Amino acid sequence: MTPSPLTRRPAARRLWFNLAAFAAVVGILYALNPDIGEAVGAVSIPDDFVGGSLFTLWKYAGLFLDGAVTTVVISMVGTVVGFAIALLLVFLRLQAPTRRDARAMAFLKIAASRFAKGYVSVFRGTPMIVQAAFFWYGLGLFGDAFVCGLFVVSVNTAAYIAEILRGGIASVDDGQREAARSLGMKPVQAFFAVVFPQAVKHSLPSIGNEFIINVKDTAVLSVIGIFELFNQTRRIAGIHYRQLEAYAIVAVIYLVLTTGLSKLLSIVETKFDLPRPELPSSN
Amino acid sequence: MKRILAFLLVPLLSLSAFACGTPGIEIEQDNYAAIIERGYVVVGLECQYAPFNWTVNAADRGETAVLIDGTDAYCDGYDVVVAQAVATHLGVDLVVKAIDWDGLIPSLAVNGRIDLIIAGMSPTPERAETVAFSAEYYRSTHVVVVRADSAFADATSILGFTGAKVVGQLGTIYDDLIPQMTGALHENPLSDVPTIVTSIKSGINDATVLERPVAVAIIAGNPELAFIDFLPGSGFVVDDADAAVAIAVRQADVTLLAAVNAALAAISAETREGWMLSAIDRQP
């Protein structure tokens, strides 16, 4: 559906608006500290906030970038692997015994469903920071904090995505399954060829949201010593014992990452004609 | 059927991709021979406790800085210089890991992910129940950091902080010393020194207790703060174990401890002070 041309701001005007907003921000920064060039080239950190921030950003840009890359990689891999685990979980969750099943089979199916239900309860019902500390310091199964972090994000995200997928499957009209069955498909065929693809398609925007939520929530992995964006920022703050400047910068970096990624996702969603959700809140 | 199989295999394969890495070495035995044979010793520190240890860019690093394991950043400071001297004495390479204060002792004694803690840690009796400590490698006096314009900046005794909100770092000697400041309000401890500095600058707290070299480093980047030295008799009463900082090793690592002590014994008091002064000087 194309919106009426009257309700839409022309692209050129939007561009000018954005440029003006950018100029205003630069202007305010300049008014607060006219010696921008001096601040970034200073030998030691300038005393004022704006100068200190510019100095910190300029001097430690490489460290911030390392952290941002680690954060995005962990979030992305965690979401993809989480999705794969969620497929298994939702498969187990949907097992229900029928009258034709032997007693052992019925028992297995109930056990599988209960397991998936329990998994979702445990991983959605406990904070990720506790899960991270539990797997890293508590169990000590992993030799590498980064691998442990990927594991924690994956198993955590899996629980959320499994519920998204279950909702997606439930939201596919039963008429779809009935139509597939009436065409002669077996129940399994009807599920995998007709119901499930639609469920996944409708779940994709929410799964994209999980990715963006992960970009923010992986900050808790600093407890196990992964150098993602927030932990990197804590070290940078420790260099000059100046937290305010470092945290202000990292807030802007997170904002750029989340808005940028949700813009990217919304382009993909428009392309595939999917419903577009708002910027997600945290879970 | 093939599709169902694929449907099941994808998650299973991705799960097995997590097949665990190599955990730390045996914590119950003497690992000296294993460490020497491995060719490197792993040292844990915070990398946010200047001038003992701090983080630097690859571009700005001096000769003394060492790459932090798992990152592209470097760690420098007095602790790093001492760590390098110990590693050289052992005849092995130095690997440095940045670990939060709370995680240092578990990483050494429980997980075996590091071999030594060289992080400005005082050898208190409580910690000595879990880990073994070397001889001291630095000794310092304790000072109080305040805002330069605060009413407490003129205090000359630790008893001059009546009504001041004083905060210390969680699990450190600093927090344990605050009760000596009779009349001061002992606030809940915070996790690291940069956070404490911020809380004093923003007015949430009024003062904190720190070692002198750390206070010097803080004032360098924060001119609105000041620290107070106390004359003998009006300062903190500190146990011998608390005034010193020492290297922590696993209790089973008896041979390693002896080697570390031999390495420290080879460093004269003047050399130590010189290292600390140049660390304060290098600190950005």
Record the SSE blueprint.
The complex is a heterodimer of chains A (283) and B (284).
Chain A: H1 11-32, H2 36-41, H3 49-59, H4 61-93, H5 103-125, H6 128-139, H7 145-171, H8 174-182, H9 187-217, H10 229-240, H11 243-271
Helix pairs in contact in A: 3-11, 4-5, 4-7, 4-9, 4-10, 5-7, 6-7, 7-9, 8-9, 9-11, 10-11
Chain B: H1 2-16, H2 32-38, E1 40-45, E2 48-49, E3 53-56, E4 66-67, E5 74-76, H3 78-90, E6 93-98, H4 101-110, E7 116-117, H5 125-128, E8 132-139, E9 142-147, E10 165-167, H6 173-177, E11 185-186, H7 193-201, E12 207-211, H8 212-221, E13 225-228, H9 240-243, E14 244-249, H10 254-265, H11 269-282
Parallel strand pairs in B: 1-6, 1-7, 10-11, 10-12
Antiparallel strand pairs in B: 2-3, 3-5, 4-5, 7-14, 8-14, 9-12, 9-13
Helix pairs in contact in B: 3-10
Question: What does this entry look like structurally?
Answer:
The complex is a heterodimer of chains A (283) and B (284). Chain A starts with 10 loop residues before the first helix and ends in a 12-residue tail after the last helix. Chain A is built from eleven helices and no strands. Chain A has a single domain, classed as MetI-like fold (Orthogonal Bundle). Chain A is mainly alpha-helical and 283 residues long. Chain B has two domains: 159 residues, Periplasmic binding protein-like II (D-Maltodextrin-Binding Protein, domain 2, 3-Layer(aba) Sandwich), CATH 3.40.190.10; 87 residues, 3-Layer(aba) Sandwich (D-Maltodextrin-Binding Protein, domain 2). Helix content of chain B is 36%, strand content 21%. In chain B, the strands form three sheets. A five-stranded mixed beta sheet of chain B has the order 6-1-7-14-8, sandwiched between helices. In chain B, strand 2 and strand 3 form a beta hairpin. In chain B, helix 3 crosses helix 10. The N and C termini of chain B lie far apart (64 Å). About 6% of the residues of chain B have low confidence.
